[in-house]
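Our preliminary data section would be incomplete without showing what the modeling component actually yields. Below, a chain of 313 amino acids is followed by its predicted structure, encoded as tokens that our downstream tools consume directly.
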Amino acid sequence: MKLAAVDIGSNAIRFQVSKILEYNGMIMFKKMEYVRFPLRLGEDVFKLGMISAEKESKFIKLIHTFKNLFELYEVTDYMVCATSAMRESKNGKDIAYKVKDLLGVEINIIDGEKEADLINTVLYNELDDESYVHIDVGGGSTELNLFYKRKKIASRSFKIGSVRRMQGLDQPEEWEEMKHWIKENTLRLPQPINAIGTGGNIGKIYELGNSDKSTKDKDKRSIALKKMMEVKAQIEQYNYEERINVLMLNPDRADVIIPASEIYISVMEFAKAKKMIVPEVGLKDGLMLMLFEKNKHKIDNLQSIKNVNKYQK
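Predicted structure:
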């Protein structure tokens, strides 16, 4: 069985096809194809309130390409989800309807709570009985979740994201609300509080902060708050072109990584978290697990499977 997921974010669009493998009573997800296309829908939406005709045209071509890949890989099922940019865009729903009419591909525009829930489905393996704040920074919004003893205590989405902040469109009132929410709700949790970070930027921050260390043991990927601040200061020493050519950042990462780092660092400071775990999971991985649950009846020997929560990148 093959499954495909598309994550339409504010800064980029991600596509993945995974094959479901059965071995020794376990289910594993083996990545067959992954594409990250830098179509920044949030650039239009957060400034103009809608997706421009130029970006709409590129977007439809991209979804058409993904549809062809669905067919070429002969996927059993797929899901396409859009987050902050499309849900805030005045013409987001109209574009989704157009894609449905032209290509027969349904785009699910989800809210921040649903986005966080999907990511959480693949996050639970990283948790233990301690207190955690999960920080998922996207281009247009930041989703926060508080956990204790593997249970979600509180959850909230804020209109603070890397693209929105880069454009200077994040509101001071939203920052104050986020700070107040974190401080009020973390009082309910035993100290200390650890952080878990998801999103493309934290992965790159982790890599830059651990460039001299082996990252083979992915279960122990973590970075201290102090180190994150050092990485941020290091990146700020370079201009945009130098970040691309010296630090080898993608062009659509080089300009948003500082705004994103400011969000991660601020949330950790508000929550008094000193260390962040950086698992390699995101929305597309949550979509994969949801698709598996939907289609698992198609596996003949499911009754003999002992573990269906093994996720393999």
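Residues 53-72 form the longest helix (20 residues). The domain at 123-277 is CATH 3.30.420.150 (Nucleotidyltransferase; domain 5). Preliminary results of this kind motivate Aim 1 of the renewal.
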